[in-house]
Amino acid sequence: MNFRQLCISRRTVAVVAGLLGMVSLAIGAHAALNKRALDAAKAIGTEQAGDAATKPARLALVIGNGHYPDAAAPLEQPINDARALTATLRSSGFDVDVVEDASKDDMQRAVGRLTSKIKPDSVVMLFFGGYGVQAGRESYMVPVDARIWKESDIRREGISVESVLEDIKERGARTKLVVIDASRRNPYERRFRSYSHGLAPINAPDNALILTSATPGKVADDGKGQYSVLMSELLNNLNAQTSETAAGAESVFNKTRVAISRASDGEQVPSVSSSLSEDVRLAAAENAGG
After folding, report:
1. Is the confidence at residue 20, as pLDDT, over 70?
2. What is the pLDDT of residue 221?
3. What is the structure's pLDDT at 203?
4. What's residue 218's pLDDT?
5. Gap between the Cα atoms of 141 and 178, Å rounded
6. Is the pTM of this model over 0.85?
7. In the chain, is it the N or the C terminus that has fewer CB atoms within a 10 Å radius of its CB?
């Protein structure tokens, strides 16, 4: 090998070494970027998991029963009400289980699914639209497969609102919200010698808020609209809220009661019963920690 060839060989080695060094630096820089990206992703994931752990669960069971074999005609509004309320609650961050034309078994399974999800500090909402009957000073939600001929049948065939509330309370829910739109004249009343119209007063457990479509012992006639009178006003008040103007649930329920009472000239006056120790917002602002 002559001197010129030796120089060229050394230059080649130097170039190759330089290229290898650049490649090594590039690989190192890429690895560092990847590590930073992974670290950032882990941090975001941890933060989101922490937020999910600190925010109370928002759960709802929505039941709309319309097709009762004993009724002269189907109730159209309860199912429409259930679907509309479900959409509104889901947009507000609720995990909603909706059941339509539910048998007693369907309702019991739905209640079981609801209570299995409850954790301490959960906000839990129950809605029932359909026929309701009172017996023994308790209010019962009537499944579509109920066979009711005498008062004792109500206890066997129906689902007690108070018993569901007790189950929710025992699971440790922080706040219980209940809307019962079932103060209708039902097809069973003519079968009893002694009969009380409407629903019985529903006893609110600790930190609960209950809205019914009429005062205890009264019935409310269905309107002609797509939704019941109660649901129409409740949806108006819920959907009017924004993250900046979100009101508490007690305010929403009371506004609904007043609006219906005024619109009906006192013919239909919903009932609101509260034992809340702290109010809860129903709009999406609750997700932001309100």
Report:
1. no
2. 83
3. 83
4. 92
5. 12
6. no
7. N
Show the 3-state SS of the chain: CCHHHHHHHHHHHHHHHHHHHHHHHHHHHHHHHHHHHHHHHHHHHHHHHHHHHHCCCEEEEEEECCCCCCCCCCCCHHHHHHHHHHHHHHHCCCEEEEEECCCHHHHHHHHHHHHHHCCCCCEEEEEEECCEEEECCEEEECCCCCCCCCHHHHHHHCEEHHHHHHHHHHCCCCEEEEEEECCCCCCCHHHCCCCCCCCCCCCCCCCEEEEECCCCCCCCCCCCCCCCHHHHHHHHHHHCCCCCCCCEHHHHHHHHHHHHHHHCCCCCCCEEEECCCCCCECCHHHHHCC
Neighbouring C-beta atoms of residue 125, cutoff 10 Å: 25
- Per this entry, what is the length of the chain? 290
